[in-house]
């Protein structure tokens, strides 16, 4: 298996450090190719067109823009793309370009479970009638820096109480919070879709970590799921589990017994 990675931030570096040398190529911004090559000793390229022949997996840990820029080219070359940037699919143009490239080239877009769980249960539950799914994302105030939460609440001052700075659909959440609501999109895509999944995003001074909660009702019964994830030291906005879920997906790719 020949694997490339896009993104050398908190998630990308964790993934590279925990996949036992399986990642041999870094796809980066063109201006960073030489510097990263010296720093890592790996093959570095500035475009998905230049990924070495034989690459069969590109791991995207870069965010929506990186997936939109490079995903279609990789998929059109028949390279599978495993992504954490799930919320990018809320943009209909990006979703169309990824879908068409995958259909043309035969690569598959693989969605990492990321910072959340219970997606397997939602996928099963939607086979029966799934009536409602809600997702609530709760992070300490610092976890919302650089997001539209700053237009609603002053994150530089101590918050006395929890503030819900967004309520709406998973599609709106994913489009407005590209660095914070990939989980909302994943819940929606596993369940009743981006427009019918109800989302609330909360800055909470008492939050013990990045808390994600799902409730669902349907023919299967009822589901409540809560996880409080630790933020990554390099980027408290991103939960460590998001990076771990990518490592798990890479490890399981070559396993003969694995979850379907
Ligand atoms: N599915 C899930 O559960 C989760 C998904 N995410 C998603 O993962 C993304 C990455 O998270 P994290 O690692 O913490 O973020 P970081 O900001 O730490 O790292 C992002 C990395 O991606 C690179 N990058 C961004 N855009 C491009 C581009 N257009 N071309 C090439 N490289 C690019 C950055 O490079 P540079 O420094 O040059 O900008 C940087 O190396 C988040 O933005 C979010 O969308 C995050 C958490 C959970
Ligand atoms: O890492 C998290 O806790 C969730 C996150 O940022 C996202 O969904 O984009």
TrEMBL record:
Annotated protein name in UniProt: L-aspartate dehydrogenase
Domain Aspartate dehydrogenase: 163-247
Enzyme Commission number, as recorded: 1.4.1.21
Catalytic residues in the record: 212
Superkingdom in the source lineage: Bacteria
Residues reported to bind NAD(+): 115, 182
Keywords: NAD, NADP, Oxidoreductase, Pyridine nucleotide biosynthesis
Classification via InterPro entries: Asp/hSer_DH_NAD-bd, Asp_DH, Asp_DH_prok, L-Asp_DH, NAD(P)-bd_dom_sf
Role description: Specifically catalyzes the NAD or NADP-dependent dehydrogenation of L-aspartate to iminoaspartate.
Pathway(s) this gene product operates in, as recorded in its UniProt entry: Cofactor biosynthesis; NAD(+) biosynthesis; iminoaspartate from L-aspartate (dehydrogenase route): step 1/1
Record lineage: Bacteria, Pseudomonadati, Pseudomonadota, Alphaproteobacteria, Rhodobacterales
Source organism (scientific name): Litoreibacter arenae DSM 19593
Keyword Nucleotide-binding found: no
Family matches, as Pfam families: Asp_DH_C, NAD_binding_3
């Amino acid at each position: 298996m020949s694997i490339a990675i896009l993104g050398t931030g908190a998630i990308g570096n964790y993934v590279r450090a925990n996949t036992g040398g399986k990642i041999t190529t870094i796809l980066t911004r063109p201006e960073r190719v030489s510097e990263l090559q010296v720093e890592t000793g790996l093959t570095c390229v500035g475009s998905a067109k230049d990924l070495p022949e034989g690459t069969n997996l590109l791991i995207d840990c870069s965010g929506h823009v990186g997936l939109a820029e490079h995903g279609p080219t990789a998929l059109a070359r028949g390279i599978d793309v495993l992504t954490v940037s799930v919320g990018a699919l809320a943009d209909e143009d990006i979703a169309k370009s990824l879908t068409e490239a995958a259909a043309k080239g035969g690569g598959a877009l693989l969605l990492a479970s990321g910072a959340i769980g219970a997606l397997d249960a939602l996928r099963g539950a939607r086979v029966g009638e799934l009536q409602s799914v809600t997702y609530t994302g709760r992070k300490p105030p610092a976890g919302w820096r650089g997001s539209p939460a700053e237009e609603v609440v002053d994150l530089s001052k101590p918050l006395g109480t929890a503030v819900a700075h967004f309520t709406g659909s998973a599609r709106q959440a994913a489009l407005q919070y590209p660095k914070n609501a990939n989980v909302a999109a994943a819940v929606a895509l596993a369940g009743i879709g981006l427009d019918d999944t109800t989302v609330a995003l909360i800055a909470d001074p008492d939050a013990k970590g990045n808390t994600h909660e799902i409730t669902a009702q349907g023919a299967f019964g009822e589901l409540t799921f809560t996880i409080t994830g630790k933020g990554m030291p390099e980027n408290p906005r991103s939960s460590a589990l998001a990076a771990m879920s990518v490592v798990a997906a890479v490890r399981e790719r070559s396993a003969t017994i694995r979850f379907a």
